[in-house]
Amino acid sequence: xxxxxNILLTIATAATPLLIAAIGxxxxxxxxxxxxxxxxxxxxxxxxxxxxxxxxxxxxIGLLAAIAMGAVFSLLFxxxxxxxxxxxxxxxxxxTLLGLGLSxxxxxxxxxxxxxxxPNLDIPGLTAIxxxxxLLFGQDPIFYISIALTAxxxxxxxxxxxxxxxxxxxxSHTSAHALGIQVIRYRYLSVIFGxxxxxxxxxxxxxxxxxxxxxxxxxxxxWIALALVVFASWRPWxxxxxxxxxxxxxxxxxxxxxxxxxxxxxxxxxxxxxxxxVVLVLISRNKRLTMMNTPASLGQPFVPDR
Amino acid sequence: MxxxxxxxxxxxxxxxxxxxxxxxxxxxxxAGAILFAxxxxxxxxxxxxxxxxxxxxxxxxxxxxxxxxxxxxIGVGLSVxxxxxxxxIGAEGQFILGGIVGSSIPVLFPQFEGxxxxxxxxxxxxxxGAAYAAIPALLKARFNTNEILTSxxxxxxxxxxxxxxxxxxxxxxxxxxxxxxxxxNDSAILPELMPASGRANWGxxxxxxxxxxxxxxxxxxLKGFEVRVxxxxxxxxxxxxxxxxxxxxxxxxxxxxxxxLAGISEVSGAIGQLQPVISPGxxxxxxxxxxxxxxxxxxxxxxxxxxxxxxxxxEAVQSALGISDKVARVFQGMLLFFVLGCDTLIHYRIRLIGxxxxxxxxxxxxxxxx
Lengths: 306, 370
Prior knowledge:
The structure holds 2 protein chains of 2 kinds. Chain A is an all-alpha fold. Chain A is built from 14 helices and no strands. In chain A, helix 1 runs parallel beside helix 6. Chain B is mostly helical. Chain B has one domain (about 70-325): ABC transporter involved in vitamin B12 uptake, BtuC, CATH 1.10.3470. The radius of gyration of chain B is 23 Å and the shape is globular. The chains are: A mainly alpha, B mainly alpha. Chains A and B meet through helix 3, helix 4, helix 8, helix 10 and helix 12 of A and strand 1, helix 6, helix 11 and helix 13 of B.
C-alpha cells in the first residue's frame, strides 16, 4: 500500500510542472498566439527560482522569483510578436534558444550547490490519515496551485464573459477587432500569464522536483507541455489528464531503470519523447476533429488598422 | 503611455531587406556590450577577445571554417523548409543520425579501406539524415501531425540512441571503457584542405557547393518556384497542381540529407570517431543561420561564418576572462531576436505614438478580409 502511495505521489510531482506549463500555454493559444518558447521560459523560471531561493534561503521567495522571471521573459516574446508582428514560430524558437543560453550563463555558479526546497504541506491530523492523507493533504504547495489553476482556467474560459471574449479573439481576431475588442491587449495579458505559468513550472523543477540547478534541467518538458495542449484539443481538463499520463510514463521509465530490467536505459529514457509522438499522431489523425478544436487564428500575426 | 504602431508599406522595402541583418548585428553588439558590462568586464576588451582575436591568425580561420561548415550545410537545407512554410526544427537529430549511419562503415568494417570508403560514408550519412527526417514528414503528410513537435522530439531520441551505441554495442573494446567507438582508419577520415596552414577539411567545400546548388534550385528551377509558391500561398499552389504532401517530403528529406552530410563530415573530419556528444547544438544554431541569412543560400554562407565566430568567441572569453562559454548561446539567441524584429521594418513602417486622442473623423474601417 505504501509503495502505491509513494508511486502516486511521485507521479503527481512529475505531472505538476507539465500541467502548469500546459495550462498556461493553453490560455495563450486560446487567444490565438502560438508561443513555442515554453521550454525557454520554463528554464528561466527554474534558474530564477533556484538562484533567488539559494541567495535568500527562502524557497517561497524563490517561487515568486520563478513566476516573475517567466512573466518578464515572455514579455520579450509579446513585444516581438504582438507589437512588431514577427513570425510567431521563429520568435518562439528564439525565445527557447535564448532562454537555454541565458539560464546556462546565469546558473554557472550554482552548479552543484544544494538548493532550498519547498516543504510539503503537513496538516496535523489530516495528513496522518492512512493512504488518502498524504495524497490529499501532504503534497508540495505547487501541486495544489496546479489543481486550482486548472479549475480556475476552466471556469475563466468557459464561464466568464472575459473568457468568452478571449476565445473569440483566438477564433477570429479580425471579427473581434471589428467589435471593438482590444485584441492586442488581451493577447499581451495571455502571453504574460502563459509566461508566469511556465516560470512557475520551472520553479517547481528547481525548488521541489530536484532542488538543485542542473543545466538544461527542463529536458524537453516545455515541448511536451506544448504537445499536451494539442493532445488535449485545447481543453483544460484533458490537459490535466494528459499531464498525469505523461507523469506516469516519466516515473514508470525511471522505476523500470531502477529495477534494472534488461532493456537499455536510453531506450527507457526516450519513452516520454516517443510517447509524445505517438499521442500526437493518434490525436491529429482525425483531421476534422483537429480543425474543429484548433483556435482558427492560431499563429497568425495581427496588425490592427487605425 | 507610448505605443508602437505598424503602418503597412505598399510594397516591401528593398532598403531594409538588405540592411536588416546589419542593423540586427549592430543591436546585438550594443546588447552584448551591456551584458559584458553587467558581468563586470570592459566591453571593448571583451569584444576584442570575442570577435577579433579568434580570427587574427591563419590557423584560426581554419577553425572558423570547421565550425561554419555544418552551420551552412544545415542552414541551407532548413531555408528550403522554411521557405515552404514547413517547420523542421529537428536538424540536430538528423545531424546525429547522419553521423551514426555514416560511421557504421568504419566502425563495423574497420578492415575496409580504400578510396571507396569516404564516398560511401558520406552517402550513408545523407541517407541516414534524410531517412530520419522522413519520419516527421510521413507523420505530417499521412496523419497531419504537427511537424514542429515531432521533429523536435526525435532530437532527444537521436541523442539517446547515439549515447546507447557508444556505451553499448559500438564501444571500442580496447578503449578502457571510455564511451567512444574505435578511431576511424585513415581512409575513413575526411582529408584536410591545406594541412600546412590548419585543420579545415572538405566539409567546408561541401557547404559552399551545397549553398550554390540550393541557390540554383531556388532561383532557377521549377522546384524552387514550387517551394516558394506553396510557402506563401498553399491555395495558389494547389491550383497550380503542386502537391503539398510531396513538398513536405521533399523539403524534409533535402534538409535531412544536408544535416546528415554535415553530421558525417563533422564526425569523420573534426572528430575521427563517435562520442556521446558530437554537436554543440549545430542543428539549433543553424535555425538562426537560416534566418540571419534571409533564407537565401548565399546569405546563409555569410551568416554561417558569423555564427561560427560566436562559437569561437565564446570559447575565447571563457579561457581569457573566465566567463561561461554559454555567452555564445546568449549572443546567438539575441541575434535571432533582433533579426526577426528588424524584418518587421521590411513590411511595415513603425510609428511611435504618444497620448494622441483618437481622431473622431476617421470612422473605423472594416478590416480587409485576408
